[in-house]
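Table S2 (text version). Query chain:
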Amino acid sequence: MNNRSFFFIIPALFVMLFIISCGYLQMNPPPDANISEEDTDESGWMAAAANMLSAADYGNGNNVQEKAEDIYANLIEEFGTDKTGWTDAALSWWLKSEHNRYPENPYKLVTVYGHKSPKLPWANPDAVMFIGNLMRKGNFVAISITWPNADVDNTGQGGHTINCWGDNESERAISENPKHIRVSDPHRNDGGSLQTYEYDFFYEPNPDGTNEGAGWYFSYDNNHPYIKNIIVLSPVTTNNDNEVAVRKMGAYRLMYPEEHARYKLQYYVAADSLIDVFNAPPENGTDFNKRPSISKGKQKNKALVEWSMKKRDSTRKWFTIFSELIIPEESGILVSDVKYELRNGSELKAAPDVYWNVIHQPVNFPSRIENISGGYIIGSFDILKEDTVFTDDDPYAEYRFISQYSFDGYPREFTLYLYAETAYCISNIKLGHKYGLLSPDSLWTFKNWIVDFPDKIECRADTFSVVFYTPKKLYYPEGEDYYKRRAKVE
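Corresponding structure-token output:
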């Protein structure tokens, strides 16, 4: 070996050791349930779920590995090893099952961000920073990946779920995208339970092959796969025994009060059983303080939300407020006493009380259905005053919502419950569907409606309900099929 070769090898080895040994790790060693047989076993999506649940201190065993193997055995006994599927369904099934004997455990919320179908990259330029901060806040994250397919435009090939445990950044909250990802993989144990991969440049991915557009691709294979969605297991702050929590979000679009420059906006949000309340900044974020006051009183299912106005843009007529609730399944949401508190101490009604809920028809024997999945119903409706002419351009207020449902509810068969005060009417109901959670910014730009109910609903004191069967059949998207991957650039 000559001196030149020697001095090239040493720095390269040092860099690789630095990547492996430095950076953030959520757990070390992490749980790493592995599949039993290559080429026939499709249960990798369940192994990822078992690892997440074990990391959250579920399962029987003396350590996280034994707990992961115990949970994995529960899952394959229920689902088998020959079907493709989705990790969020495996998580939700186990949390609802008789195996979950841990009512005090706060990890009850399962969320999917990104896409399941079509199999396209999750085109969020800050996604891997988002993943990193989720881990640093105590959430457990798995990533769903797919490989670019040169033979077919606008879709990827195959699917796989791996557990994300760290990156190359420090332990503190991060403000930039990491360059490396650290994972465990039910199909790989190269160098131990952890593997480290490098991300491609977001806008120029998979440099030696084809790509399906901008996204977070990384060096897992010669043909770099990309992240299409992530699955997150999160804790809740209020424990409701073994009830699985879901996300429900509501956004009011309201008119500014005329001729009032400064005021507070306040309202109550309530549910049958309220676990957590979060608020995103309003759509017109320059008008309001970004962090509202949220206070819970003696009624545990109710919270008061108050926004303080900073300044008023006189060129705009509407503004939007947004609330996110973490609640048990089948719990409805009531928004009430929506009012402006003016600077002179007087009050002005801002919007009527509104109650809404979406309840899905249950699926019989859900674990027998390949690729079964939960998802999100997106809804929209207008609110009119009783004396409003139906052809008026502007409603009194607009409301949009997101309602999460679990894997054991039919996506296309559900009942929508709506209530507004007697002096108000509801019209222009629209419903859509996604398998990944929309962001607050995307809620008002969403247009992929599958149900349109334009009629005006007469004002009434009781709750309006209607059973919907979506005219567009919602098929479960093809689950994670590791053996369809295109591992090499062709």
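Notes on Table S2: The chain has two domains: 3-235, 245-469. The CA atoms of residues 120 and 332 lie 33 Å apart.
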